[in-house]
Design a protein that fits this description.
With 369 residues, this protein is α/β, with parallel strands linked by helices. The protein has 17 helices and 11 strands. The chain has helices spanning 10-23, 35-43, 46-49, 63-66, 69-79, 102-107, 118-127, 144-157, 171-180, 193-199, 205-211, 222-238, 257-266, 296-299, 315-319, 351-357, 360-368; strands at 28-34, 54-61, 84-88, 111-114, 132-139, 162-169, 188-192, 215-218, 243-245, 267-274, 278-287.
Length: 369
């Protein structure tokens, strides 16, 4: 990727770490909201470079991880039906439901297909008029515009055989829920740059002001993250609580206005269940009534499915930054990428997956010897 090296300079990283060490005078807990940031932190060992006074905790910014078990089971129920082509991004195939996952259903004969855009599902619906084509629409605000466009196009084209199982979640309500929790230790946030590229950062300003927490919109490369941490620590030490934008090369305060308008056209805000966390008010998107003919949950009548999380899985506490993968007795043992108990072990943005991929389960074994 062109220009990638300039954001991975070891020399500049050391200077940023030295600057953080110079200005920090007390202990601070900072949460990176996005799972993509978590993977960069663990992959490059950024958390091990920081002064002991800075503790990074991993937030709920993995849309695959927070998709509720009920929704996963609804997806499996739909995918298993004859006459259905069930489409999804690849990271959903190994996410465990109560009984199975999409990968196993595919092996058993279900027509499950990996696609790279929801518009690919529209093409499938047009090419297969005798089939019901369903797209599993998960994600934060980042993927909402493309998903909204797919539904809008299906409605405009009169595609009665296309529907979407919508499980969109929103970042600001999750941050508010974390700050309101009685066990909260978070004193500053690194906000997800790709979400803010769509939505801007205006909706973060009331959160920063009300809860007196600095929020820094941050990119995903090592220097982005270290600079974001430095900006956050500066505010914490100065006693300020504002929204700052480290990711200025991508993000504007107002966000992407056409994308936001498209989202408002297709989706309403609703209460949403988060896996391992519970219901967070006004934290998700649902299709407007105008587009209910493309709402897979209604088309296939699967909303009544009830589920229960595995007792050994603490992914909910990990997603809230209360615990780390090392606090889980099943991590790297009963729970692994080959046999996951929860989505945080198989998602590309899951904290457990990051710890496992970059060898921290081996570090855990060394600590217990």
């Amino acid at each position: 990727m062109k220009y990638i090296d300039e954001y991975r300079s070891e020399e500049l990283a050391k200077k940023l770490v030295a600057e953080i060490a110079k200005i920090v005078t007390q202990n601070w807990v900072i949460m990176e909201v996005c799972g993509g940031q978590t993977h960069s932190i663990v992959k490059f060992g950024l958390d091990t470079m920081l002064p002991d006074a800075i503790e990074l905790v991993h937030g709920p910014g993995c849309p695959v991880c927070v998709t509720p078990l009920e929704m996963i089971d609804q997806a499996h129920a739909i995918a298993a039906r004859p006459g259905v082509i069930f489409t999804s991004f690849a990271d959903m195939l190994r996410v465990p439901g109560s009984q199975t996952d999409l990968f196993r259903l595919k092996a058993q004969g279900a027509d499950v297909r990996v696609i790279y855009s929801p518009l690919d599902a529209l093409k499938m619906a047009k090419a297969n008029p005798d089939k019901q084509v369903v797209f599993f629409g998960i994600g934060f605000e980042t993927t909402a515009p493309a998903n909204a466009m797919a539904v809008w196009r299906a409605h405009q084209d009169g595609l009665a055989n296309f529907s979407m199982l919508v499980s969109h979640v929103l970042v600001p309500p999750a941050m508010t829920a974390i700050l309101q929790a009685p066990h909260n230790r978070v004193r500053g946030f690194l906000a997800a740059g790709h979400v803010c590229a769509i939505m801007g950062w205006e909706e973060y300003e009331p959160i920063a002001a009300h809860y007196r927490v600095p929020i820094v919109v941050t990119g995903f490369e090592p220097l982005d993250i270290l600079e974001g941490i430095c900006m956050t620590v500066r505010q914490l030490e100065a006693g300020t609580a504002e929204v700052e934008n480290q990711y200025a090369r991508v993000v504007k305060r107002e966000g992407n206005l056409p994308a936001k308008q498209l989202i408002r056209t297709v989706f309403d805000v609703c209460d949403r269940q988060w896996r391992g966390i519970g219901v967070i008010p006004q934290s998700g998107y649902t299709l407007k009534n105008t587009f209910e003919a493309h709402d897979a949950a209604k088309v296939f009548e699967v909303k009544t499915i009830q589920t229960q999380e595995p007792a050994d899985c603490i992914s909910g506490e990990i997603l809230q930054g209360i615990k780390t993968p090392h606090d889980c007795s099943a991590f790297g043992k009963a729970c692994s990428p080959e046999h996951p108990l929860g989505a945080t072990m198989v998602s590309e943005e899951g904290a457990c997956a990051a710890f496992y991929r970059y060898g921290r389960h081996l570090q855990q074994e060394e600590l217990t010897l």
